[in-house]
Design brief:
Layout lengths: L13 H11 L5 H5 L3 E2 L6 H4 E3 H10 L7 E5 L4 E2 L2 E2 L4 E4 L12 H7 L3 H5 L17 H6 L2 E5 L1 E2 L5 E3 L4 E2 L3 E5 L3 H7 L2 H10 L2 E2 L3 E3 L2 H4 L9 H31 L13 H4 L6 H12 L5 H39 L4 H11 L1
Parallel strand pairs: 3-10
Antiparallel strand pairs: 1-11, 2-6, 3-6, 4-5, 7-9, 7-11, 8-13, 12-13
Helix pairs in contact: 8-11, 11-14
């Protein structure tokens, strides 16, 4: 009862409350060290401002100046732990009061059919401008940063080095480094984040800016700082290698379809979760024909080799994540009982 003060209440046992107080005491916050996380772009009408690769290429072909406004784009759902999964989308980035739309005729002509709807958006801006976008954000978004989604069932932080912009269901931390990424993806930090962020349906949390900014950042000696940063970078490299491997095999699966092209059902999209007999069964179900007998052995060998590579990368990531967790526990000088409390909550 003594802990029910004027601020937000946390109804938990004494051990958890004591540990939480220990984690935040005497440390600067993430906002103090790195600055407040920034929200992604609010377009007010994505159908107008977000385009796929073919439309992007057509706009540039019609007017080369269009390339100045087209930015590679991520949606919140594309953001995973240690990696992102771009869908080859592009954002027409037009902040308030920065351009004359007639200087970009192809983009203007693309946006014109949406003008009535764009003029009815909630805020006041020129019809062709994004609803919430600042020119000052451009250098920060184009530089390496940590990025994460608004809705998260677990820690889903990654480092984004390629200058992607992102939507309003995402946030980014300008200048976020590998050390911070390791902290954010650790069990300890997710335990903290869960206690701060609102829980919503489906096992998701709303990972809002005001909560992430309050996370403690402990001082680290050079050895521990380097260890966490190196392991985080290696985790991301392994996760990106795994993503590329999964996507490369996925692109081969339609070769088994009549005509060589087909939309994959969910189980084939996640092919690495199957064994080969189940994979073969899903192919038969989706494409209405079995893998040809003459090709079956080759496909089985190919499948098993790629699945083994995916599993090996899973094991590597798990091993490195455990090393990060142990280093973070040392940073906060946790006792065996406190570690057991955290580990039990994570299971």
């Amino acid at each position: 009862q003594a802990r029910l003060g004027a601020g937000s209440w946390q109804l938990e046992d004494d051990a958890s409350a004591s540990l939480r107080q220990k984690l935040v005491s005497g440390h600067p916050t993430l906002k103090d060290i790195y600055g407040s996380p920034c929200r992604g772009v609010v377009s007010g009408f994505n159908d107008a401002f977000v385009v796929d690769r073919s439309k992007r290429d057509a706009l540039i072909a019609a007017d080369a100046n269009s390339a100045e406004l087209l930015k590679p784009f991520l949606e919140g759902k594309d953001l995973k732990k240690w990696r992102s999964e771009p869908q080859d989308l592009w954002l027409i980035y037009i902040p308030k009061g920065r351009i004359d739309i007639d200087d970009y005729p192809a983009v203007r002509d693309h946006l014109l059919p949406y003008r009535d709807k764009l003029e009815k958006r909630a805020t006041r801006q020129a019809w062709f401008e994004l609803q919430q976008a600042q020119a000052a954000y451009v250098p920060m978004m184009e530089a390496p940063k940590i990025i994460y989604g608004h809705f998260s069932p677990r820690a889903l932080f990654s480092r984004e080095p390629k200058g992607y912009f992102s939507n309003d269901k995402s946030y980014f931390i300008p200048g976020g480094d590998w050390f911070l990424l390791g902290l954010l993806n650790s069990k300890l930090y997710w335990w903290q984040i869960q206690s701060l962020c609102p829980f919503v349906r489906g096992g998701f949390y709303e990972v809002r800016v005001q909560y992430i900014g309050t996370l403690p950042i402990p001082a680290a000696d050079e050895s521990t700082h380097t260890e966490i940063a190196s392991e985080a970078e290696a985790c991301q490299h392994a996760a990106e290698t795994q993503r590329n491997l999964q996507q490369a095999f996925r692109r081969r699966i339609p070769d088994l379809a009549p005509g060589g092209s087909a939309r994959l059902p969910g189980k084939l999209e996640r092919w690495w979760k199957l064994d080969f007999p189940a994979f073969r069964g899903e192919v038969k179900k989706a494409f209405k024909q079995d893998i040809p007998l003459a090709e079956r052995n080759d496909w089985e060998s190919f499948f098993n080799a790629k699945q083994a590579a995916v599993s090996a990368l899973d094991a590597e990531i798990a091993r490195r994540e455990k090393a990060i967790d142990q280093a973070v526990y040392r940073l906060f000088a946790l006792t065996p009982a406190e570690i057991a409390l955290l580990e039990g909550a994570a299971d």
